[in-house]
């Protein structure tokens, strides 16, 4: 089974533009997590889903951020409008609650100019 | 106080030595503890999980947990240059909380 797939791997955009990050989780793992990683703040949990339902979005920094999981095999994280301070690496991770283990995707490196 | 604390390093050890990485956490109800390794420019990779007090060994890696002291550590025996990476401690509350990571360098 393939691991977590994220796209795009790199995204460069201008301030004010809409950005959509995509994630295809590992089948059979019913938890999906979105993280953001920066040098200053480390790895931060943004939101997580269980069986496609958002459980906790308290880590989402502001209303410009939204996430959806329309089905078990796909999730998106959208930033609209984007700002330079959103520049970071965004990771999607698939989770197994039985063991609390998480498997990370390769990440999307976002640069907002 | 941060929920999960790690010494940011860098920690430098010679090849073949034991590397000791430490982590403290603030929530006494945590039940699951993890060590992830992250190479530069890559995603975190799970290397150890531990759920009960004591030691857990996996190859050259040993995780140690002391819930009374709210302390979890990772020992890497016979350190290799390929072990050079940032090691993230993670603690599960209702969701996963990560430490800032300790950067380890193993010198040949």
Describe what this molecule looks like in 3D.
The complex is a heterodimer of chains A (113) and B (108). With 113 residues, chain A is mainly beta. Helix content of chain A is 0%, strand content 58%. In chain A, strand 4 and strand 5 form a beta hairpin. The N and C termini of chain A lie far apart (37 Å). The mean pLDDT of chain A is 92. Chain B has 108 residues and is mainly beta. In chain B, strands 2, 4, 5, 9, 10 and 11 form a six-stranded mixed beta sheet that branches. A five-stranded antiparallel beta sheet of chain B has the order 1-3-8-7-6, with no helix packed on it. The mean pLDDT of chain B is 92. Chains A and B meet through strand 5 and strand 10 of A and strand 5 and strand 10 of B.
Helical content of chain B stands at under 10%
State the total count of DSSP E strands of chain B: 11
Taking pLDDT < 50 over at least 5 consecutive residues as the criterion, the unreliable ranges of chain A are none
Computed CA radius of gyration of chain A, to the nearest angstrom: 13 Å
Shape of chain B: globular
Which structural class is indicated by helix and strand composition of chain B?
mainly beta
Total beta strands of chain A: 11
Number of helices of chain A: 0
Distance between the termini of chain A: 37 Å
Largest interface: A-B, 16 and 18 residues
Total helical elements of chain B:
0
Radius of gyration of chain B, taken over Cα atoms and rounded to an integer in Å: 13 Å
**What about the largest sheet of chain A?**
7 strands, mixed
> Helix and strand succession of chain A?
EEEEEEEEEEE
Indicate the topology:
The complex is a heterodimer of chains A (113) and B (108).
Chain A: E1 5-7, E2 10-13, E3 19-24, E4 31-38, E5 42-50, E6 53-56, E7 65-71, E8 74-79, E9 88-96, E10 101-104, E11 108-112
Parallel strand pairs in A: 2-11
Antiparallel strand pairs in A: 1-3, 3-8, 4-5, 4-9, 5-6, 7-8, 9-10, 9-11
Chain B: E1 4-6, E2 11-14, E3 19-25, E4 32-38, E5 45-50, E6 54-58, E7 61-66, E8 71-76, E9 85-92, E10 96-98, E11 102-107
Parallel strand pairs in B: 2-11
Antiparallel strand pairs in B: 1-3, 3-8, 4-5, 4-9, 6-7, 7-8, 9-10, 9-11
